[in-house]
Amino acid sequence: MESGSVLVDSNVYIGLLRRGFDPVAVLGPWAGSTDVATCGMVRLEVERGLRVERIRRHLRAFFDVLIMIPTGHPTWARAAELAWSLDRRGITLPSQDCLIAACAQAGGAAVLTDDRHFDHIPGLQIVRRTEKEAA
Predict the structure, then answer these.
(1) Which residue(s) pair with 7 in the sheet?
(2) Prediction pTM value
(3) Is 110:1 a contact under the CB 8 Å cutoff?
(4) For residue 81, how many C-alpha atoms fall within 13 Å in the half-sphere facing its CB?
(5) What is the pLDDT of residues 62-97, one digit of tens each?
(6) CATH second-level architecture of 5-134?
(7) Rounded to 10 degrees, what is the CA torsion of 14, 58, 50, 63?
(8) What are phi and psi of 134, to 5 degrees?
């Protein structure tokens, strides 16, 4: 992968948490080699599912130092276009994934994800972690 920013999808955070890992400890080292980004939708999906306030504060502090890709009108329009065009091809993706993909494209970022939905987004650069990297 070329050097550049990587938007970490919510399913990466959630998957790490479910397996008992601290996402900050796992993803933090990426910040030394690339710019780690997020967007409002990822932050919403992750924080919404957290039950323990201490963990929420910990992740919130991490989100606060990441590159925040804005979700303005052009990004929403791109997400709607992606959803519409994929629907016409018989591929129905969650709206959240269309928005996350549009954010990544707007920010010139790849998406770090374990979700195969993103494979359907034309021109989107995808990064996948190996199980060895996840631990």
Answers:
(1) 37, 111
(2) 0.89
(3) yes
(4) 11
(5) 999 999 999 999 999 999 999 999 999 999 999 999
(6) 3-Layer(aba) Sandwich (3.40)
(7) -60
(8) -70, -25
